[in-house]
């Protein structure tokens, strides 16, 4: 009996290795295709792709003009997903995103309500400048991002599968922005900070985008294949040491868990969703790099994008000029030390 079980395990392992190798080749093609349109920004592209490969949502934060919207549109094309874009503005209403019911009247004079789906009924929703809409409209996405359905007039409406929200956000210091509610921030698997490009990349942007022809991306995989890769990532083994590293990191970021720096500087820390996000994203990062199992290095590399939007500093820490990134860097240094 044990021999049979061992043989089965070996077969399963071979199948997973073969599937991972196929997925790795396709991910490499996706990266190359995105690279035709988005120059430099390797970390931004990697983190955004990891969020999608993990089956989650990502929040891209940066000043206008850094190709955040273009990256999201390019990913939709390359991954073969149906996509729609919503430009968030202060006067946007929840029904502009979810859809609404209208009254129809037939030839006999009978009246009935008919639901007209909003742009949320897509596989990849680009929520552009999400923090320019009011909190009421921002929260329209809450149920969809967690439960993958919405409720309109008491009726449940399921969303297409897969369903991903890639939102762009302007820095909160800018005029006309509203901070996202903490509950909604927690729905984003990762916050991806988009900085200014390196000199070489910016030179390439100048040369490639101001001529008569501009590069375009083509589809590499489709929605069904993306779901298979997402399923494969969930099957990848995670060692006990990596699980312990996730738990130690997440718990050390919460006040009241014995970390003196955290107790002093952090008002509230990440919940269990942060650990789930680290677990999924570490697996995806391993596959992205051509490995079959995540390492502790993956956890440390993902600490900032996974944790930073799930924590808040005390007033005293903010007054001293400290940032959430500083706190996370300190926790990572402790964990490595």
How is this fold's topology laid out?
Blueprint: H1 2-35, H2 42-53, E1 58-61, H3 68-78, E2 83-87, H4 94-98, E3 99-105, E4 111-117, E5 124-128, H5 135-138, H6 142-147, E6 149-152, E7 155-158, E8 164-169, H7 182-185, E9 190-193, H8 199-209, H9 223-235, H10 240-252, H11 260-265, E10 266-268, H12 272-288, H13 296-307, E11 312-313, H14 315-319, H15 324-336
Parallel strand pairs: 1-8, 1-9, 2-5, 5-8
Antiparallel strand pairs: 3-4, 6-7, 10-11
EC number: 3.6.3.-
Keywords: Hydrolase
Protein name: MoxR-like ATPase
Question: Can you offer a commentary on this structure?
Answer:
By secondary structure, the protein is α/β, with parallel strands linked by helices. It folds into two domains: 20-210 and 219-235, P-loop containing nucleotide triphosphate hydrolases (Rossmann fold, 3-Layer(aba) Sandwich); 238-337, Magnesium chelatase subunit I, C-Terminal domain (Helicase, Ruva Protein, domain 3). The protein has helices spanning 2-35, 42-53, 68-78, 94-98, 135-138, 142-147, 182-185, 199-209, 223-235, 240-252, 260-265, 272-288, 296-307, 315-319, 324-336; strands at 58-61, 83-87, 99-105, 111-117, 124-128, 149-152, 155-158, 164-169, 190-193, 266-268, 312-313. A five-stranded parallel beta sheet has the order 2-5-8-1-9. A hairpin with a 2-residue loop joins strand 6 (149-152) and strand 7 (155-158). This is MoxR-like ATPase.
Features:
11 strands, Rossmann fold, MoxR-like ATPase, 2 domains, alpha/beta, 337 residues, EC 3.6.3.-, hydrolase, disordered N terminus, 5-stranded parallel sheet, 15 helices, two-stranded antiparallel ribbon, Helicase, Ruva Protein, domain 3
């Amino acid at each position: 009996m044990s021999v049979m079980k061992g043989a089965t395990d070996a077969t399963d392992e071979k199948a997973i290795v073969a599937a991972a190798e196929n997925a790795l080749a396709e991910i490499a093609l996706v990266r190359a295709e995105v690279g035709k349109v988005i120059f430099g920004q390797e970390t931004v592209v990697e983190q955004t792709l990891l969020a999608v490969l993990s089956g989650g949502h990502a929040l891209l934060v940066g000043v206008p003009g850094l190709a955040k919207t273009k990256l999201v549109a390019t990913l939709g094309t390359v991954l073969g997903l149906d996509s729609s874009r919503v430009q968030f503005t202060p006067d946007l209403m929840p029904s502009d995103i979810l859809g609404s019911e209208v009254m129809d009247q037939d030839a006999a004079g009978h009246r009935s309500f008919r639901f007209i789906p909003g742009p949320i009924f897509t596989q990849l929703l680009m929520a552009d400048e999400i923090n320019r809409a009011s909190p009421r409209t921002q929260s329209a996405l809450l149920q969809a991002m967690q439960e993958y359905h919405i409720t309109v007039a008491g009726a449940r409406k399921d969303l297409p599968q897969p369903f991903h929200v890639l939102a762009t956000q302007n820095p909160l210091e800018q005029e006309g922005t509203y901070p996202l509610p903490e509950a909604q921030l927690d729905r984003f698997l990762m916050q991806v900070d988009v900085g200014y490009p390196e000199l070489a990349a910016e030179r390439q942007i100048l040369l490639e985008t101001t001529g008569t022809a501009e590069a375009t991306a083509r589809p590499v995989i489709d929605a069904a294949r993306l779901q298979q890769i997402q399923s494969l990532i969930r099957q990848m083994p995670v060692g006990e040491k990596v699980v312990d590293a996730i738990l130690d990191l997440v718990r050390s970021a919460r006040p009241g868990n014995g970390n003196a720096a955290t107790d002093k500087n952090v008002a509230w820390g990440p919940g269990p969703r942060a650990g789930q996000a680290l677990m999924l994203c570490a697996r995806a990062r391993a596959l992205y790099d051509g490995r079959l199992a995540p390492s502790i290095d993956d956890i440390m590399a993902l600490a900032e994008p996974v944790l930073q939007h799930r924590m808040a500093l005390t007033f005293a820490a903010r007054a001293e000029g400290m940032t959430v990134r500083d706190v996370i860097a300190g926790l990572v240094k402790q964990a490595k030390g």
